[in-house]
Amino acid sequence: MAKEKLLMTPGPTMIPSSVLEIMSRQIIHHRTAAFEATYKGVEEDLKLLYQTKNMVLMFASSGTGAMESAVANLFCPGDKVLVVSIGSFGERFGEICKVYGLDVVKLSYEWGEAADVNQIKDILDNDIKKEIRAIFITHNETSTGVTNDIEAVGKLTKGTDRLLIIDAISSMGGLELKTDEWGLDVVVTGSQKGLMCPPGLAYASVSDKAWAACERSTLPKFYFDYKKFKKGFLGQGQNPPFTPAVSLILGQAEALRIMKEEGFQNVYDRHRKLALATQAGVMAMGLELFATKEISSFIITAVKAPEGIEIGKVIKTMNQKYDIIVAGGQKHLKGKIFRIGHCGYVDRFDLMRGFSALELALSENGYKVEPGVGIAAVQKSLAE
Amino acid sequence: MAKEKLLMTPGPTMIPSSVLEIMSRQIIHHRTAAFEATYKGVEEDLKLLYQTKNMVLMFASSGTGAMESAVANLFCPGDKVLVVSIGSFGERFGEICKVYGLDVVKLSYEWGEAADVNQIKDILDNDIKKEIRAIFITHNETSTGVTNDIEAVGKLTKGTDRLLIIDAISSMGGLELKTDEWGLDVVVTGSQKGLMCPPGLAYASVSDKAWAACERSTLPKFYFDYKKFKKGFLGQGQNPPFTPAVSLILGQAEALRIMKEEGFQNVYDRHRKLALATQAGVMAMGLELFATKEISSFIITAVKAPEGIEIGKVIKTMNQKYDIIVAGGQKHLKGKIFRIGHCGYVDRFDLMRGFSALELALSENGYKVEPGVGIAAVQKSLAE
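Output (structure tokens, whole complex):
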């Protein structure tokens, strides 16, 4: 017997059964009052989650589509922007900006580090002509398990002419983000991580400052055109300009209902506690965190592969023998780290299952570990 | 008691229950052998359906995203293209081309007419310098219920340097399209019409000639970048570059299995018979087809609103009282036509239900119709 796979990955994450059930109902038409009410409800709930009064646009796409939307909608060719990169997804923002012909100032960090806000400040301060129109930065870098201090970056741009664009694809729903208070102009995320839905939906909040930038922008866009979403279908508002991913929207409505029922603050607390327990568990097993504890993500924990152990085999054992999926490292980190996701629909007992399997898989692949030492540390941490 | 709504709309269309069931299973991870096999299988089945050896790229988006992809991937600013428009979706192709700075030659027809292939030929013949690089044309125009003769258009471009780009969003799976034999360079479609899935997936086949155009193209694109899909995730092929809409792909695999089981030719025959029966039914009720019979679509039948009858009220009665959704007219056709979809997961008994409701709703809104006359004509037509 094999149980269904437990995904402890950076996404997709596990889906609550009531969400799955709703998506299994017969399809409904999107140009109807019933669907429009649900659609509007999802946007309202997303605004609560985002802590914003801004519109939150909903695209049928994965998160990268929403990242691209922020570039295509707000800028003109040759615009200078600052892209802060601490890993794979920061790199992606930079690539998109280059594809669209922006003049990219890149501030890159070693993978495993967080952005130094003072360095960002210095770059802005030295930009005397105020040519830098925007900062692009990742909230939670899933490739390295590191979280950036977005509140601090917000202080540099709030109330200025500069835009702040946040990739919150893996953080939204797991880490608190105060969109309006921190002055975040565009915040993009996706359905398949903290938002407990299948992949296929992406969201973008748009501030007044960002809407003004849309008016100036000359870059081509159509499917992701913010102004089309503001206008709505046939200019009547309410409804998206293009056929939405109906079943996923209905699932998202239910997932947001579950999150509201728990309370967003409780959701964040749960993520924090699970992350600290994961850190305690891996350290008790003699493993090392990839990033320092201070910047380690509450969404996903990156762990150094122990010396002499083929971590790819450990990951394979966990999947094939124990039906638990954790992620390896990407690009130059392949073979050097593994990543345990604890994001979205995850509770303490999922961690127990995960750590039980991790102990077994490590042990079976040559790493000496006392049975139970990881799990016990997780249990202990959660009791604190 | 209200039964679940029967969608007789141009999309979304009804979903088979086995497709719904598969989408209700717990999510699986997309970077796994199990998902990759399904993903590859969907592409292979799409190739059979498309009748092509070309790659068929799969996007998490609605059909408009795939339409945009054809513009952004194949052209440079200022390129001259011919856009043939017979309705709302032909207009959309033109708008996208303009947004991307193409030099658009527009050949427009009255809504309700089909494109005249001789006029297309004349335009190409008069383009002595061969500046026109491509033709954009809609296969089945859902806004008017008219089908264009794509085979004939293909004869004008096959074996030449010109590209032929087809919007087959509403036709694929309902009307036969011989992608390779007819020389179609990019054919875009979506999951939510003939393909019997929820909205959220879009597809594009890409010919060798189109791949060559990609190499030349300088327009910006990222999320829909064909070359990224050819390369695959981290350059390893097989898997999409960005997180796919996992649950929808699994649903699409099952829907394609059902279509193959019926046999694609039988699927097309069913659509044709249902369309002819629909035409017979409305005419027996004294209603008029919007387009001439020769060009009337086998996917969706557009019918003129009878004089003196508020067709919006008829549509509302069908929805609210009889739980059957048909579509009204778009833009200047609003109030002047209604459209009965018979696309995808539809059989003769759905038509019976639909015509029964249509007779009732028309009658209740002031149109005199002998009870049973429409249904009997449908039944008779299907018996032929």
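Residues 194 and 344 of chain A are 4 Å apart (CA to CA).
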